[in-house]
Amino acid sequence: IDARGGAEIREPPAAHPTGIMNRIAGVHVSELTGEGHSMAMRQPITTKPMYLYLEDGVPTRATGFFNHNALYEVNIPQSGGLEIVKGPGTALYGSDAIGGVINVLTRPAPLTPQLDVGVEGGAYGYRRVLASGGFTKGHNGVRADLNVTHSDNWKQLAPFDRASGTIRWDAVLGTSGWSAKTVLTGSKIDQQDVPAISRAIFDTAYTVNLAPIAYRRVRALRLSSAIEKQSGDNLWSFTPYGRINDMGLLPSWQLTFDPQTWETDNNSAGFLARCRRDFAPMHARMILGTDGDWGPGRFVAKQAVTVRSGTYRAWWSTTDGATQYDYDVTYHGVSPYAHFEPSPVSRLDNDLGLRADFSGYDYSTRLAPVDTGAHRVPASTSVSYSHVSPKMGASIELSPAASVFASYRHGFRAPSQSQLFQQTATSSTVDHRPVKVDSYESGVRGQLGTRFVYQLAAYDMTIRDDIITFVTAQNTREATNAGKTRHRGVEASAGAALTPALRLDASYSTASQRYVEWTPQAPRTGVAGVSYSGNLIEQAPRDLGNVLVTFSPRALRDGRVALEWSHTGRYAADPGNVFFYSGYDILSLHFNTFVAHRAELFTRVTNLTNRRYAELVSYDQFQRDQYTPGAPRTVYGGLRYAW
């Protein structure tokens, strides 16, 4: 597990998750409109459901209702830390954990009454208020966090607004060993989505918004209560939770080939139940648990009848056309698991796990089934999946300052409801098979002296039956299980305290991600089509790097000045490997100082050299090259005061 503490996240707080997560070896978060993002973690840069997002161990959404922008539904700037598992995490966490797991931790109540308020502003109408406070009285502690953010955006006509709040209540029930942690989190996000642009527009007018009509309206509410009892070597835990998710969307990326408006509602409930026991023999730990999730939802897609005008043929207005999808779907899943950590000999730790997933969907269309055209509607049906996912690992302590580790992990992901029931022009989608992955990893970690820490890991992942959408010769998008892909790489990170005031932190990863077997037209036509077997997977950077140099002189009174370099390497822009993007390098500057005992001034400058670059580049035969511009030089500053 790679971890980032709450202090690192808040010193100073980043405006986007890229400001924290891209410092981790092998992790890349693309900065899209507002706080939108796409993720790459032992996977290409993708919006596909390959990751599991958690808050205090509770999934933020039901399986099947994945949102690639899930991090904006969690209040990261005020979190207590991040835990990141790279690679499959199914054996412990369940479906969706293919590329990795991101667990955002909430902060506990302070022992003494506290109030912390930060206000900041920046270029392009950016302003944010972060307020947090709490107290502990007797056996109860409460913390409340509030995040209110607005940005006019450097892209034209693309404002962003969010309001997020978290209330956490920690209670210790006398001396009985019982405790409870209850967390209520809500988020409201309103933003305009901006489509990608051609290379010609990128070179001449990269701030233009070609779709002022595109929007995203998100409402998310979660309530969970982790109830635990500690009794000797035993720990019993039961966490019931409920979630409300509502999203309205006019997808900007579909305007050129299939303009639609979407409405998705999903109200879900579930539980995490487990018992843990420590054993003196072999210094072992056993965990037995069962997770359950039930999530009814609805999806409606209507044709968007659009009007284009102006110099760049932008989409300026839209009216609703025919209803193309309208269905109810309920996800249900139960997953028992066992986790065993024996240490049979000194300096050897083992990690064994097995999970069984029993899940499925009950789907009911409100429209008549359609089996022709670009918006085929499958008939009402039910689908189910059962799968067993093992994992095993070992860690050997070579010395008090160094250890080696190795692991095998198997992963599983049920198809999302959109991949199953939004059929488009594909001949069949309800028979999509689950995605499966086998991952092998080994490495070494440790420290040299008291000033240098390091970690090096190599991995080899093979994914079978990945669900990939491709562009046909008829300019339709069709999704099928795509044979086999392979993802191999090396990740390295190191930190060194060069002097008491100067620190260097660096991370680097290199990867090869290829299609092993993919002939995408064959499932639709029944005959052999174009084969991409052996090609590089598009939008899979060859390498990623980050270097952070931090200087903390006494004159800054516990503050610092830091220079950060971030590197994204070359990648293919199309599956045919005809078009490539060279990648980019970005410099950023961070500064903070305490002007009084409780008053902190801070500033951030991103893209210090004001480089013009693209966060994402793709290519297909109809839209040609498509660039998602990166932000220009942006300056932020603020004041934080604590009582």
Fold and architecture overview:
This protein has 643 residues and is mainly beta. Helices cover 4% and strands 60% of the residues. It contains 6 helices and 35 strands. The longest helix is centred in the N-terminal third of the chain and has 7 residues, at 199-205. It is globular, with a radius of gyration of 25 Å. It starts with a strand and ends with a strand.
In terms of per-residue confidence, which ranges show pLDDT below 50 for 5 or more consecutive residues?
A: 522-528
Ends distance: 34 Å
Structural category: mainly beta
| Whole-angstrom Rg | 25 Å
Query: What is the mean pLDDT?
Result: 92
Number of helices: 6
> In total, how many beta strands?
35
